[in-house]
Design a protein that fits this description.
The protein has 5 helices and 4 strands, in the order H-E-H-E-H-E-E-H-H. It is an alpha+beta fold. The chain has one domain: Glutaredoxin. Helix 2 links the parallel strand 1 and strand 2. Helix 1 crosses helix 3 and helix 2 runs parallel beside helix 4.
Length: 110
């Protein structure tokens, strides 16, 4: 990963309370895992940003190195890597993801 790509990803992660790197967009997810991640965030009712990794190959590969996590989607809350869709689902079902959003004081979606 280039320094420029690392810097871009870092700025995105730090620039949003919640950001999901995903395949596709919230309205048109391009894989089942991204669709599941969007459904979880929408159900939590939090404000989040998304990045379509299919639109930028540097980000698509770079995010994997940035987080040291091999798959997409990837969720970040307040600059910290949380996990992919399976971890999101486990945390959601246990109430931990809701608690994390409250502790991080994430804004509700408009």
């Amino acid at each position: 990963m280039t320094d420029a790509t690392h810097s871009r990803i870092s700025e995105i992660v730090k620039g949003h309370d919640v950001v999901l790197f995903m395949k596709g967009t919230p309205l048109f997810p391009q894989c089942g895992f991204s669709s599941k991640a969007i459904a979880i965030l929408d159900h939590l009712g939090v404000d989040y940003a998304s990045v379509d990794v299919l639109q930028d190959m540097e980000v698509r590969q770079g995010i994997k190195a940035f987080s040291d996590w091999p798959t997409i989607p990837q969720l970040y809350v307040k600059g910290e890597f949380v996990g992919g869709s399976d971890i999101m689902m486990e945390m959601y079902e246990a109430g931990e993801l809701h608690d994390l959003m409250q502790q991080a004081e994430v804004r509700a979606a408009n």
